[in-house]
Design brief:
By secondary structure, the chain is an alpha/beta fold. It is 48% helix and 13% strand. It is built from twelve helices and ten strands. Strands 5-6-7-8-9 form a five-stranded parallel sheet. A three-stranded parallel sheet has the order 4-1-10.
Length: 290
C-alpha cells in the first residue's frame, strides 16, 4: 500500500498564515499527475513551526481534499511520545491512512527508548505506521536491529530511510520484511537495488509524474529504464539538498514556477540570490523553464 511515488508535500504560507487555496491546488496537481500517496506535515511540510492546531488542520484538509483517491500518510511524529500519540489519534479520527513517525529529535534516546516510543504509539493507536529514520535531523537514529524488533509489531509496516546508508538499508532488508522507501530523492534507485520500494519525495512537489514514472519501473523490475529517469532527476534532486536546507530550495523552485509562495517561517529564510540563480539554471536544464 505504501510504495511507489509519495510526495512530501510542502505547507504553503501567505502573509504568515497557511495558504489553504494553494494547498488545495497542490493536492489537485498531485492527484492529476498520478501520485501514489500524499505525505503532509513532515520535514518538507515545516511541521516544527506549525502550531498543533495548524498541524491538525493541515492533516484534516489534505484528507478531505484528497477524498480517498490515494492514501494520506500524516506526519504525526514528535520528540514527545504523548504528543505523537495525540497527533496520531487525531490523524486516525479524520481518516488518514497511516502516520509517519520521525525518530524523537533532540532527546537522543537509546535504542530501547526508540523501541518503546514507537511501540507505545502503535499500541495506543490502531493505524499503520511508517517509521522515519533521519539521523542528520534527529541527532540519533534507528539501528537495523531495532527496526527488526519494531517490524514484529503488526501495524508498523514501513520505514522511510533517510540515513543515506545503503548498508543500513541492506541490513534492514536482510533482518525483516518491512517495506523500505527512500527519504532522499537521489537515492531512490540505489536503495531499490537493495530492496527499496519507492520514495517519499521532495522533487515530486514539482515533477510528480516523472518520479512516478521512475518508481513504476522500479516496482516492475525494469532497472535499466528506471536508470534513465534517475539520471534525468539526479541534478534536480541534488539541488534540493545542496543549495540550502530542505524545504528552502523546493519552495524557491515552486515560487519560480508560479506554483506556491516562497514564504517560510523563521528560523528558515528564503534562498540567497546567488543560489537561486543556480536553481533557475537547474530548472532550465531540466526543461521546466524556458
Amino acid at each position: 500500500m505504501f510504495t511507489g511515488a509519495m510526495v512530501a508535500l510542502i505547507t504553503p504560507f501567505r502573509d504568515g498564515q497557511i495558504d489553504w487555496q494553494t494547498l488545495d491546488e497542490l493536492i489537485d496537481f498531485q492527484l492529476e499527475n498520478g501520485i501514489d500517496a500524499i505525505v503532509p506535515v513532515g520535514t518538507t511540510g515545516e511541521c516544527p513551526t506549525l502550531s498543533h492546531e495548524e498541524h491538525k488542520k493541515v492533516i484534516e484538509r489534505v484528507v478531505k481534499t484528497t477524498g480517498g483517491k490515494v492514501p494520506v500518510i500524516a506526519g504525526a511524529g514528535s520528540n514527545s511520545t504523548a504528543e505523537a500519540i495525540e497527533l496520531t489519534t487525531f490523524s486516525k479520527k479524520v481518516g488518514a491512512d497511516a502516520s509517519l513517525q520521525v525518530c524523537p529529535y533532540y532527546n537522543k534516546p537509546t535504542q530501547e527508548g526508540f523501541y518503546q516510543h514507537f511501540k507505545v504509539i502503535a499500541e495506543e493507536v490502531d493505524l499503520p505506521m511508517v517509521l522515519y529514520n533521519i539521523p542528520s535531523r534527529c541527532g540519533a537514529g534507528l539501528t537495523p536491529e531495532t527496526v527488526a524488533r519494531l517490524a514484529e509489531i503488526e501495524n508498523i509496516v514501513a520505514i522511510k530511510e533517510a540515513s543515506g546508508s545503503m548498508d543500513q538499508a541492506s541490513e534492514i532488508a536482510a533482518r525483516c520484511d518491512i517495506t523500505i522507501v527512500s527519504g532522499d530523492d537521489s537515492l531512490t534507485l540505489p536503495l531499490a537495488a537493495v530492496g527499496g520500494k519507492g520514495v517519499i519525495s521532495v522533487v515530486a512537489n514539482i515533477v510528480p509524474a516523472d518520479v512516478k514514472a521512475m518508481t513504476d519501473l522500479i516496482l516492475e523490475g525494469d532497472f535499466t529504464s528506471a536508470l534513465k529517469w534517475h539520471k534525468k532527476l539526479f541534478p534536480l534532486s541534488k539541488g534540493m539538498l545542496t543549495l540550502a536546507t530542505n524545504p528552502i530550495p523546493i519552495k524557491a523552485a515552486m515560487a519560480i514556477l508560479n506554483m506556491a509562495p516562497e514564504e517560510l517561517r523563521l528560523p528558515l529564510v528564503p534562498m540567497e540570490e546567488k543560489n537561486k540563480a543556480t536553481l533557475r539554471q537547474i530548472l532550465k536544464d531540466y526543461g521546466l523553464l524556458s
